[in-house]
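Ticket #4471: structure output looks truncated?

Reporter: J.K.
Steps to reproduce: submitted the chain below (422 residues) through the standard prediction queue, then opened the result file.
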Amino acid sequence: MKRSLRRAVVVCLIVGIFLAACAKPQPTAVPSATAPSAAAAPTAAEKVGAPYKIGFLAAITGGNAFLGVPERDAALMLQKEFDAQGGIVGPDGVRHPVQILIHDTESKGDVAITVAKKLINDDKVIALVGPTGSPVAMALIPVVQEAGVPLVTMVSSHATVTPIAERKWIFKVAASNIHTAPWQVKYAKAKGLTKIANLYVNNAYGEDGAQAIRQTAQAEGIQIVLEETFDAADTDMTAQITRIKASEAQAVLVTAVPPAAAIFTKQYRELGVNLPLLHNSGVAMKPFIDLAGAENVEGVLFPMGKLVAANALPDSDPQKAVLLKFIADYEAFTKNPVSTFAGHAWDAIQIIATVAKTLPDGLTVEEQRSRLRDGIENLKGFVGVDGVFNFSPEDHVGLSTKDVVLVRITNGTWEYYPEDKW
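Returned output as attached by the reporter:
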């Protein structure tokens, strides 16, 4: 009787620990690091290998938290799924638990570097995912290059993966500005707007987007009549907007993220500018609408992945089923609207897990990292949230303009804006 009682107590404790580890995170939770929960127990006949540890860096606090929290939530969702299925099974039948080690970068490059070094040297991760924000990603490049660890970033700047000779270990899942900016210019050209203003935030993301707009505009015969910059922390853009009003610009193309992007848009409307306003994908989030005000973002256009168009896609589109499942899973797990930034995290982790399934047991961590890098570089036809990925030694993004659509903000929400409605 005493033995039965002891068994019951032990079972209750195990169940309690499992439920606590898998509990839904609150949006306000800001752990510096999130430990994985225990994986499902293998069958008696299975051989279990060492866990595959994936380091995950996101801006859970700081200026980019509105991007990093959805990314963190997607990682927690996938951790729960990996636990439920007992990890992943390699080509030799050995099962490996998956542990996603989540850390907060606080939206700072120096914090990201410190955490990345810990994950690489102490935790012996096989790969890194993150960080949030192009400037922080640029700061991590020397660290991962020197350590020889695959890094799959969630940022937009194409400079994080080029030149590839200097970015051997780095890959990216968010569409680059070279994939999104052409849609801004393409729309202007389709509407007969041949003179544009090129506005951008003064950091790696903004400069990358501005350059992509320059290149596309030149190729399409569009004239840039004004270029202006602003800092990410600026709260007054009236000087730049006044110069827009005095210019010959027929449309305004912007590369920035909130809060600066929202402040610019709000002041743009308040100063009575009625020129078409085309942002880049950095505003593909609800906080942009909330910060700028629904009345000020009405009619704003921007390019993004097909997530927003999931229901409108034909059944033949390979992304449709993946997108609909991701939306349902994410919203059920978080009780929040789906986020394209969460999709970046989902793609990055799933790409690493897909290639990890090809690793035989018994490799050293260094061998695992090297084989993962080579495997990602040669991964073809991976259907994700951001698109259908086809990586190569010449392309560490694997996406194209075909993985992007144009979106219009209507009545305070995103609306797929296909070309036949332009």
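Triage note (M.O.): checked the attachment and the full token line is present. DSSP finds 13 helices and 17 strands in the chain.
Status: closed, working as intended.
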